[in-house]
Amino acid sequence: MKDWNYKRLLLTGAIACLAPMPVLADNIKGEEVAVLTDAPEVPPPITRKHATKVIVNLETKEVKLRLADGVDYTFWTFGGKVPGKFIRIREGDQVEFHLHNHPSSKLPHNIDLHAVTGQGGGAEGSFTAPGHSSTFSFKALNPGLYVYHCATAPVGMHIANGMYGLILVEPKEGLPKVDREFYVLQSEFYTKGKYGAPGLQPFSMTKAVEEKADYVVFNGSVGSLVGDNAMKAKTGEKVRLFVGNGGPNLVSSFHVIGEIFDKVYVEGGKLVNENVQTTLIPAGGSAIVEFKLDTTGTFILVDHSIFRAFNKGAIGMLKVEGKEDHEVYSGKTKDGIYLPEGGVIQEIGAEAPKQIPAKTLEERLSGGKRIYESSCFACHQSNGQGLPGAFPPLAKSDFLKNKDKAISAVIHGLEGPIKVNGKEYNSVMPAQILSDEDAANVLTYIYSMWGNSKKVVTPADVKAVRAAGKK
Ligand SMILES: [Cu+2]
């Protein structure tokens, strides 16, 4: 280093020591309050071409919210929801961060932003008792997509209860323009009861330590990005997902079924990989993925550690409407039956756990909905409409007129030619290993839905059909 430079360094160092307040660099112009959004929304891109002073106000709050249908959880949050608010700033910005802890909180909280260079990522400077506010300031030195989280002891517990979110530091030159941006964050929950066990579920420290997650979800609950809550876009558009992993423990194998990521900003940094099927997102890390929508469809977001998707909740949807491109994807063009020698009904499912019988019709229906969405939905489709030529409809199905036959189909399986609403099906439905209670629930649910006859099936009905054996 040149002597002159070295002296200058010493000199600035000395001035900095004397200064009582952090010196604002002279390239900071103006001041603004950050727009914060709840997932899956993302604040608008930053258009200014200079660094500014950004004021961020974030509130920690402990709230009871839905984790899954019939399951509640007391979440600890940044901004009242899980994941926490999305924060968007620009490289070089000077951020004045205000952390407010709601007076109703039972615990102190703080924030460690991975975008911060400094002690604890801001944790020390932001430790805040209930009903208090803390202020600290930092300079956004490095662009990228960063996780933030609470780091108050016991740290694992604060994170496990939902205290994480994303902060994007846009590079000086900005990000390339896209048509839509979404905020998706994966995380796990550890509850006293198993997946789906109803009621307000307390946190299980034992399961968290053993890394045995009951729920793995996108955006804080099972189904938060499914059905009416799905993300929506149109063909021809370019989509960017800001994806985070709050953990606390698991690494995500993030994948979108039926899409290839044209670009992945690996680990939320500057390195861009292209043509990626599945990208790894570490706990406490992120990725930015981009793809163009070439054809229509419902594209399913999953953690490709696949039991997490189909058994623990890690499913999201991007619904794409517009112009189908049959060259890009034809859809099914032909369907035939393939039954190799010895093709017999196989049993799927696991031994049913002990369960509490439904006391009301409502309980039976909500239990049935759960079974439908985990065991039947894949074949009979979300609205019971089935798939022409493959899976018969359950919606307005005339096969359901005979209750015993319907029960038998579910518990014993069904194969060979049948007619449903005048159409022939000749296929195999695997026997569903369900308790009498679960079979009664799912059948009652089916009878209650989609214009069906609202019959009620009881565990005793199922028991009787089981006792009569397969006909
Ligand atoms: Cu906390």
From TrEMBL:
Enzyme Commission numbers on file: 1.7.2.1
Domain Cytochrome c: 363-450
Residues that coordinate or bind Cu cation: H109, H114, H149, C150, H158, M163, H304
Organism: Bdellovibrio bacteriovorus (strain ATCC 15356 / DSM 50701 / NCIMB 9529 / HD100)
Lineage: Bacteria, Pseudomonadati, Bdellovibrionota, Bdellovibrionia, Bdellovibrionales
Protein name in the entry: Copper-containing nitrite reductase
Enzyme class: oxidoreductase
Domain of life: Bacteria
Keywords: Copper, Heme, Iron, Membrane, Metal-binding, Oxidoreductase, Repeat, Signal, Transmembrane
Record bears the keyword Cell division: no
Gene3D superfamilies per the UniProt record, alphabetical: Cupredoxins - blue copper proteins (2.60.40.420), Cytochrome c-like domain (1.10.760.10)
Cleaved signal peptide residues: 1-25
Subunit-level organization: Homotrimer.
MF GO annotations: copper ion binding; electron transfer activity; heme binding; nitrite reductase (NO-forming) activity
Pfam families registered for this protein in UniProt: Cu-oxidase_3, Cytochrom_C
Reaction(s) the record says it catalyses: nitric oxide + Fe(III)-[cytochrome c] + H2O = Fe(II)-[cytochrome c] + nitrite + 2 H(+)
Transmembrane segments: none
Required co-factors: Cu(2+); Cu(+)
Family: Belongs to the multicopper oxidase family.
InterPro entries on file: Cu-oxidase-like_N, Cupredoxin, Cyt_c-like_dom, Cyt_c-like_dom_sf, Cytochrome_c-type_DH, NO2-reductase_Cu
